Amino acid sequence: MAERPEDLNLPNAVITRIIKEALPDGVNVSKEARRAISQAASVFVLYATSCANNFAMKAKRKTLNAGDVLAAMEEMEFERFLEPLREALEVYKKGQKGKKEVSEQKRKDKEKKNDSENDKSREEEEEEEEERMEEEPEAENEAEAEEEEVDN
């Protein structure tokens, strides 16, 4: 786990961005207030994680999932956040599905490209083999003709 209490704090840049997005333009927040909000957010995240972990342990799992977090929010009496969390989770899942589909499409395109390149190289090899086959009988005929001349 964390070696120092400060290691548990969320990044200041993230906290500052969240604060700016939540407040109207022109509102300034002191450094002390940002630090206090950061510490409060860190405590909240740790508490929510602990509650979610309890749900995972009851289910005899070591991995927390979204259901555990939603159940923890309900247990902590933050029901008003459940619907926004579900919506955000759906958006996230759709984004991940889209990324997966794009990645899969790129993989298929790459396979098609490799297959077509392999087909082209096979065709070239077959053509070269046919040319060699055509040249070999000529070379054999010449060798036979030379042998006959030597025999005579």
Automatic annotation (TrEMBL):
UniProt-annotated location(s): Nucleus
Gene Ontology CC entries for this record: CHRAC; epsilon DNA polymerase complex
Keywords annotated in UniProt: Acetylation, Coiled coil, DNA-binding, Nucleus, Phosphoprotein
Domain called Transcription factor CBF/NF-Y/archaeal histone: residue spans: 9-73
Biased composition (Acidic residues): 124-152
Residue span of region Disordered: 92-152
A Gene Ontology molecular function term of the record: chromatin DNA binding
Pfam families: CBFD_NFYB_HMF (PF00808)
CDD domains, A to Z: HFD_POLE3_DPB4
Major subcellular site: nucleus
InterPro entries reported in the protein's UniProt record: CBFA_NFYB_domain, DNA_Pol-Epsilon_Subunit, Histone-fold
Highest taxon above the source species: Eukaryota
Biological processes annotated in GO: DNA damage response; heterochromatin formation; leading strand elongation
Keyword presence, Transcription regulation: no
Keyword hit for rRNA processing: no
Biased composition, class Basic and acidic residues, residue ranges: 92-123
Subunit structure: Component of the DNA polymerase epsilon complex consisting of four subunits: the catalytic subunit POLE and the accessory subunits POLE2, POLE3 and POLE4. Interaction with POLE4 is a prerequisite for further binding with POLE and POLE2. Heterodimer with CHRAC1; binds to DNA. Component of the CHRAC ISWI chromatin remodeling complex at least composed of SMARCA5/SNF2H, BAZ1A/ACF1, CHRAC1 and POLE3; the complex preferentially binds DNA through the CHRAC1-POLE3 heterodimer and possesses ATP-dependent nucleosome-remodeling activity.
Function as written in the Swiss-Prot or TrEMBL entry: Accessory component of the DNA polymerase epsilon complex. Participates in DNA repair and in chromosomal DNA replication. Forms a complex with CHRAC1 and binds naked DNA, which is then incorporated into chromatin, aided by the nucleosome-remodeling activity of ISWI/SNF2H and ACF1. Does not enhance nucleosome sliding activity of the ACF-5 ISWI chromatin remodeling complex.
Protein's name in the database: DNA polymerase epsilon subunit 3
Protein's organism: Dicentrarchus labrax (European seabass)
Gene: pole3
